[in-house]
Structure formats: C-alpha cells, structure tokens
C-alpha cells in the first residue's frame, strides 16, 4: 500500500486562520516581565515599581506605506516593528512588548508570511521586545499591518514634545534624508547607493540614544523624525509654544546622500529638511553641551540650532539671512 504524499502548503488558504496562528507563534521573542503571553484571551505584563507604561501604535497599508515590489517581506516585518520602537525611543522608553495584527489575502504565499515574521522577530530579539499576541483576518486586499508596542520608562523621566523653552539648543542624532533618497531608488528600480536603500528598508530605531537622553535629565523635548525634519520640528514648536532657528551650515549631510543628490542635480539639503522615515531623534537640551554619557555604538548627537521665542521655524543661512520655510511635513490626508 503506497502512502499518499502530504499536500504542499503554499498559501494562507492552505493552512487557515488557526493554522496560521500556530505557525506564527512558534519561537517568538519574550522577556521576564511577560507573565502570560500568546494563547489566552489577553496577555499579562508585570510593570516594575517606579516605572510607567508607554504605549504606541502604527498602521501600515499596502500601496500607501509600502509596495511589495519595492520591499521584501523580511524587511517589511523588521520595519513594521522598527517604526513603533522609534516612537518608544522618542519617549526615552525601553521596549517591553508588542501586539501584531494583520489583514492578509488568502492567496498570500506562506513563504512571504514566514519571512515577514522572521524579520520582525530578528528585531524583537535584538531589542528585547516580547511578541505577546495580536489578531489576524482575511481581506481581498491590500495587506494591512498594525502593531501596538509597549515600553517602560522611569516615572518622571519620559520625554515629550512640549517641554522646549527659549534658549534651549536643538540637536539631531541619526540619519537625515537617506530614507527618502532610498525610496526614490527603489521606486525607480535604480541600482547603486546601497546605503540609501538600506536606510529606507532597515531603519535603526534610536533606543539607546533615547534612554540616554531621558537619563541625562537635560532633554526638554524629543520626537522621532518620521515625517521630515521640518514637519516634526513643527510638532515640537507648536506643542511647546516656541519657535526654532536651524543653522543651515550645521545640518549634517551624509556623503552618500551628497553623491546621490549631485547625480540628480538636486540640493542634498532638500532631502535633509523634507525627507521622511529616517527615524532619527530630534531633541532639545538645556545648555549647549552635548548629552553625556552617550552610548558608544549610538549615532553621534549634532547641534543644528536653537529654540527661540517667536513661533516660527527659521533657517539661518550662511550669509546671515533668516528665511521661513513653507513646508510643514507629511500629512496622510493631503
């Protein structure tokens, strides 16, 4: 009697919802604060005494925030978690846990889903973020990815957007403009400039930097740069009731970005000011000294300006002129 070969599992339709959940919840990252993880109606997390719980969520929709032809599943899984961890970094929080919700078409190949979770779990392990649950549903399309993340921050140390005061100094740590350039390369199918494409596909959340800023007790405001330097600085200015002066000559320009911009006959400063999805930290400090101590492997802090009384954002040009830029940042509904 011959045995029938087991059917090959190719797509989500072959395993169904509960088969998918069992497949995805194997060997997920965890940590000691998780009292109860995947498998029950809700997860249970232990919050250490003296800490607050920071929460954030981000929604990624196919053909709005990503295209499958320009980003591999593994990179998308990584980036889906990275953008949430960047929000926690901007609050000075340590990652704790994440919930993952997916809307997926039934014909989606299982290898795509496996790669997505592998990329996400790689970063979860590296950042000590426990994956403690979520939800799945079918959709005729597009793919929708929603993560909710939770972090721990000592009471009284959380960083916000609303504490900047006139006289504070304005700083950046992390890349600026590289992700926008990388996206252009990916959309156009151009080769070369690997560092720019990597910056868009595999952004590094500034977790150690954010915790160092919170511990310094000199940081008065902080935000991660997801919608562009000018757009996100606008959030600090409006919520703090202040203005800001950016020193044009102090803006950091990565050499690879400069070469790319030159190849397109554009000014690299356009990318630095208006590019999004860099996930650098933009922050203000009391005094003019850089934050210390600073993590050895972290992006270096760069002073780029000063907080002023006037409610505008101004650019101080090399010739001494001040100009008010018109760009306000990315808006999902405009």
Which key phrases capture this entry?
334 residues; 60s Ribosomal Protein L30, Chain: A; Phosphoribosyl-aminoimidazole Synthetase, Chain A, domain 2; seven-stranded mixed β-sheet; four-stranded mixed β-sheet; 9 helices; 32% helix; disordered C terminus
Question: What is the topology?
Answer:
Blueprint lengths: L11 H13 L9 E3 L7 E2 L5 E11 L11 H18 L3 E11 L5 H18 L2 E9 L5 E11 L14 E5 L4 H11 L5 H8 L5 H10 L2 E6 L4 H12 L2 E5 L7 H9 L4 H7 L6 E5 L16 E7 L4 E4 L5 E2 L11
Parallel strand pairs: 4-5, 9-12
Antiparallel strand pairs: 1-2, 3-6, 4-6, 7-10, 7-11, 8-10, 9-11, 12-13
Distance between the termini: 66 Å
The helical percent reads 25-40%
Secondary-structure class: alpha+beta
Number of helices: 9
- CATH fold assignment of the largest domain: Phosphoribosyl-aminoimidazole Synthetase, Chain A, domain 2
**Name of the level-1 CATH class of the largest domain:** Alpha Beta
C-alpha geometry:
globular
CA gyration radius, whole angstroms: 22 Å
- What's the average pLDDT? 92
Compressed to H and E, one letter per element, the order equals HEEEHEHEEEHHHEHEHHEEEE
What does this protein look like?
The structure is a single chain. The protein is of the alpha+beta class and 334 residues long. The chain has 2 domains: 143 residues, PurM-like, N-terminal domain (60s Ribosomal Protein L30, Chain: A, 2-Layer Sandwich); 155 residues, PurM-like C-terminal domain (Phosphoribosyl-aminoimidazole Synthetase, Chain A, domain 2), CATH 3.90.650.10. It contains 9 helices and 13 strands. Helix 2 runs parallel beside helix 3, helix 2 packs parallel to helix 6 and helix 4 crosses helix 5. The C terminus is likely disordered.
């Amino acid at each position: 009697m011959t045995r029938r070969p087991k059917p090959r599992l190719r797509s989500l339709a072959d395993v169904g919802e509960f088969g998918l959940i069992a497949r995805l919840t194997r060997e997920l990252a965890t940590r000691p604060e998780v009292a109860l993880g995947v498998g029950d109606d809700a997860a249970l997390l232990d919050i250490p005494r003296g800490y607050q719980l920071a929460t954030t969520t981000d929604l990624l929709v196919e053909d709005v925030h990503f295209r499958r032809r320009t980003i591999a599943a593994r990179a998308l899984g990584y980036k889906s978690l990275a953008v949430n961890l960047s929000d926690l970094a901007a609050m000075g929080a340590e990652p704790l846990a994440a919930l993952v919700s997916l809307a997926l078409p039934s014909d989606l190949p299982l290898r795509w889903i496996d790669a997505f979770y592998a990329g996400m779990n790689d970063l979860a392990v590296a950042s000590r973020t426990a994956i403690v649950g979520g939800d799945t549903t079918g959709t005729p399309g597009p793919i929708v990815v929603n993560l909710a993340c939770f972090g721990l921050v000592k009471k009284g140390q959380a960083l916000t957007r609303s504490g900047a005061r006139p006289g504070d100094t304005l700083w950046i740590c992390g890349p600026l403009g590289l992700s926008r350039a990388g996206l252009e390369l990916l959309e156009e199918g151009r080769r070369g400039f690997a560092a720019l494409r990597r910056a868009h596909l595999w952004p590094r959340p500034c977790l150690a930097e954010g915790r160092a800023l919170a511990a310094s007790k000199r940081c008065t405001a902080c935000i991660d740069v997801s919608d562009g330097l000018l757009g996100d600085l606008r959030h600090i200015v409006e919520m703090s009731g202040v203005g800001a002066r950016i020193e044009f000559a102090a803006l950091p320009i990565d050499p690879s970005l400069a070469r790319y911009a030159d190849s397109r006959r554009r000014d690299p400063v356009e990318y630095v000011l208006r590019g999004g999805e860099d996930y650098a930290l933009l922050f203000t400090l009391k005094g003019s000294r850089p934050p210390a101590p600073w993590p050895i492997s972290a992006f270096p802090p760069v002073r780029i300006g000063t907080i002023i009384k006037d409610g505008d954002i101004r650019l101080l040009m090399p010739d001494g002129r001040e100009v008010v830029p018109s760009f306000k940042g990315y808006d999902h509904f405009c």
